[in-house]
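Researcher: I'd like a candidate sequence for this fold, 156 residues long. If you have to choose between options at a position, lean toward the conservative one.
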């Protein structure tokens, strides 16, 4: 079950949905307890073509953010796991995305001051382990309350 809280009251395992300032902006999904963020993109996983991360007006971003949470709630209610892995043909490197609505939400390394890039895991085992950690946040068990918050104002 998902429960919305104010950012200042969110616990260490909360799921943040961040909309930075700007006329055109990203929507960033931040599982606080994990070292990754998820960003919406239109991408088919073809490594020859980089993902096209989506930018939105602030009004569009707010709509996308609310739809993302509704998509997670629907996935939990229907017992559907929207997490998928992708990688090269030899399965030497893997990535993870969450499919929701018309976007794939790509797992990216969180590194302050750096441009977001899809996170690459060295093996399918490493990607599976990361996916399990992420699933615990975005697909909480029936007896778990998952906090989430929206942050559209304060960024450091």
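Model: Candidate sequence:
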């Amino acid at each position: 079950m998902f429960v919305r809280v104010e950012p200042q009251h969110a616990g260490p395992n909360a799921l943040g949905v961040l909309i930075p300032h700007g006329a055109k902006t990203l929507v960033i999904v931040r599982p606080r307890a994990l070292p990754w963020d998820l960003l919406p993109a239109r991408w088919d996983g073809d490594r020859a073509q980089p993902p096209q991360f989506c930018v939105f007006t602030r009004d569009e971003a707010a709509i996308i953010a609310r739809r993302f949470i509704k998509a997670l709630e629907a996935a939990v209610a229907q017992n559907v796991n929207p997490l998928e892995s992708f990688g090269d043909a030899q399965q030497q490197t893997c990535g993870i995305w969450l499919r929701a609505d018309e976007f794939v939400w790509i797992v990216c390394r969180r590194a302050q001051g750096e441009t977001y890039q899809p996170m690459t895991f060295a093996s399918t085992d490493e990607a599976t382990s990361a996916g399990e950690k992420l699933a615990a946040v975005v697909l909480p068990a029936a007896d778990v309350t998952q906090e989430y918050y929206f942050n559209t104002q304060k960024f450091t």
